[in-house]
Amino acid sequence: MKKVFIGVLAALMLFAFTACENGSGSALENSIITKIEVTSEAPSYFVGDAISTSDFTVVATRLDGSTFVVPASDLDLTDNETVEGAEAVDEARTVATVAYTGYSYGTTNPVTAELKAYVYQLDQIKVEGPATPETYYIVKPDAEIEFHTEYNPASYTVTGEALDDDNEVIYSRELVYSEETADSEYTVAAAKDDTNLTSGEGTLTFTVADALSSSAEAKEEAIICQPDRMVSAKLAANPNVKFIAGDVAANYTNSTYFNVTAEYVSGYSEKLTSGFSVTFDSSSLTNDNLPSATGAAATASATISGQTVKANPITVYTSANYITGYTASYQAQATVKPGEKVQKDLVTITPVWKVENKSTFTPSFTVSDSDGTMPQIASGSTYVFTVVLTNPEAADAEPGYALLTVTAGDTTTTKQ
Fold first, then answer.
1. What percent of the chain has pLDDT over 70?
2. Which residues contact 129 (CB under 8 A, 6 or more apart)?
3. pLDDT at residue 7 greater than cutoff 90
């Protein structure tokens, strides 16, 4: 029996050895990463620069000796994400450690390599702008000048420079601007020499972002300042407002019903809700009232305070009068016996109209709780029902219901 076992074991070992010879071992070796190393030349950074794995070529070696270039997506910085420390001008120094995060069979500890770079201190900046100063448009709000012109980074090239002991440039690169201050390598501030809203010279001040740990002096570029001026205006009716047919037109000439969008020569625009007056064309009115027919047209125009620009006339259309809210009350001293219904002809609905309504109005409504059935409560107690007015004129009423208080009694009062 022992000899049989040894024979079987030998056969299994021979089979395993043959399988390895046929390639299964090679497949395993191709899945094991033994090391990674940087093969590209060391890049150059300023102190404070963000370190990017895409700046380096990293080659991985497998167990069988084959190699491949590791994609940047399979590399991860294990410590510094920015360049820290002192300059290393003449000789590259380690700025971070990178780990291989791709698949490696049986690996428990990450395979790492050092990233080395030449490091420079940003000593000064150079700004190149247009030959003729750009025009910046300004307005003066309550306290200080405000610029309506936004900085255009495409018009300027800002370069960071490192200097040697003889003030010669030994490394430089263009700095990147972003509207998000946290992501920008420099900031820009516009200013005018005085606080008066007059034409004249101003400046753009370029400052290196704090992240680059630089003591470089800020640089200034001249700009021409001009008072921004309104060149057009557009009148519009506010959303969801209604112009009630037959109502006094003057009731609608305010910012509740209208707004103005002003456009300036700088391209700046703003929505005005004050500082303008609205008038209706008298030819579209009837005795200073809006047309009495529903859906009729009326023409409105606007004048902006202190401006020669006028908003183009627009047409608004009249709407039917509507109910903004309502109350409900039950006939005094009337009662409802528990188990019986509220008598709808004893309910009085008092609507609140957008415009006083002097015509006859017949309310249509529903009463909550099983169509107004009084619950089994003690005689003399009160119960609150919810009344909903169903007339089309009440579709926009707020809150859209009324509370009806009814007293329980031994009998149900009916209309005499």
1. 91
2. 155, 156, 157, 204, 221
3. no
Could you write out the DSSP letters of every residue in 307-359? -S-EEEEEEEEEE---EEEEEEEE-TT-EE-TTSB--GGGEEEEEEESS---S
Both ends of the chain: CA-CA distance in Å?
A: 116
DSSP state of 249: G
pLDDT at residue number 33 = 92
Q: Residue 237 in contact with residue 256, Cβ under 8 Å? A: no
CB-count burial class (<10 Å; 0-12, 13-18, 19+) for 215: exposed
CA 124 – CA 63 distance, rounded (Å): 49
- 112 — pLDDT class (breaks 50, 70, 90): very high
The torsion angles phi and psi of 195, rounded to 5 degrees, stand at: -100, 10
List beta partners, residue 339: none
AA identity, residue 344:
K
Specify which residues 163 forms β-bridges with.
169
pLDDT tens by residue, 346-356: 999 999 999 99
Are the CB atoms for 96 and 155 separated by under 8 Å?
no
DSSP state of 394: G
Please give the structure tokens belonging to residue 12.
């299994």
pTM for the model: 0.68
pLDDT for position 195? 65
**Taking a C-beta distance cutoff of 8 angstroms, is the pair 149, 136 a contact?**
yes
What CA–CA distance (Å, rounded) separates 230 from 267? 10
The alpha carbon torsion through 58, 61, 67, 72 (nearest 10 deg) reads: -30
Residues 183 and 194: beta-carbon distance below 8 Å: no
